[in-house]
Amino acid sequence: MAVRGAVPEVIWARPERTGRGPKPARTRDDIAAAAVRIADAQGLDAVSMRHVAAELGCGTMSLYNYVPRKEDLYELMVDAVSAEHASWEPSGSWRDDLLRVAHQTRTLMHRHPWLPRLMSPVYGFSPHALRYLEHCLACLDPLEASYSTKFELIAMLNGVVTTYVRNELDTAERVRALPWSEKEENAARITYLSGRIASGAYPRMAAAFTEAPGPVDAEAVFERLLKRVLDGFDPERGAAAR
Predict the structure, then answer these.
(1) Separation CA 131–CA 82 (nearest Å)
(2) For residue 84, what are the CA distances in angstroms to 50, 79, 104, 128?
(3) Domain ranges in the chain?
(4) Of the candidates 24, 39, 129, 133, which lies 20 to 30 Å from 81 by C-alpha distance?
(5) According to CATH, what is the number of the domain 11-82?
(6) Which of 133, 118, 6, 21 minimizes the C-alpha distance to 72?
C-alpha cells in the first residue's frame, strides 16, 4: 500500500545512517551479514528486523536508522551475496565464460538457498550486482550484438538458472519431509506409473519410457539447458543476434 507523502528512494543513495549523534555503531555490511546468517541457517521467513537486531545485540528500532524498510534489508542481503561472484579475465569465448558464470550462480544459490526467492530486477543494480553485470558484459565483448540483446541474454540465463535451482531446492525439501526414504518413495511412484503406462492408454508416454536411457543426469541436463539458451544468441549456430 502506498504511503501518503512517501517518495521513491534507493538505499544506496542514502547515507549510511540518518539522524545526528555519535558515530554509528553498525554498518550496512554488519546488518546484511547478520541477515544472511539468519537466512542461511533458518530460511528467509526467519529474517525480520527484530531477529537481525537480536543477532547484532541492539534494539530493533535502532536498525531503522540504517535500513528504513524490510525491502531495503533484502536488497542489502542480495548485494552481500553478490559479492561472492568471482571475476576473471575473459577467455575470448563468450559461450565458455557465460557457462562458467551460470555454474557459479548455481553454486551460489545452493550456498544460500533463500536467494532464488529474492532474484528480481529490482535488486539488480546494487554495487556488487553492477560489478557482476559489468563482468558479464566484458565476457560478452566478442559477441557481435547490441547491449540490449546482451542484457536479454544475461537475464534469460539468470532466469533459467534460478528456475532450475529453485526446482532442485524444492525437490530436496520435499524429500526431507518424507516419512520414509527417497528410495521407497521413488519405488512406489514407479510401480504406480508403470501400471498406468502398461494400460495402453498412453502410447506416446510408453514409447518415451522405452526410449529413456536410465536415471536422469541432473548435471548433464543443466549443461544442455544452458547451451540451448546460448545457441539462441549465437550467430554461428544459425540464430542471428539482434
Answers:
(1) 9
(2) 26, 9, 9, 9
(3) 11-82, 94-177+212-237
(4) 24
(5) 1.10.10.60
(6) 118
Our CA dihedral for 72, 77, 78, 82, rounded to 10 degrees, sits at: 140
Q: Give the pLDDT score at 175.
A: 84
The pTM for the full model equals: 0.85
Give the residue from 103, 53, 89, 94 showing the smallest Cα distance to 73: 53
Look at 170 and 1; give whichever has higher pLDDT.
170
CA–CA dist 115, 162 (Å, integer): 9
CA 217 to CA 222: how far, in whole Å? Answer: 9
Handedness of CA 206, 210, 215, 220 (dihedral sign): negative
pLDDT band at 7 (very low <50, low <70, confident <90, very high): low
Please state, rounded to an integer, the average pLDDT across all residues of the chain.
88
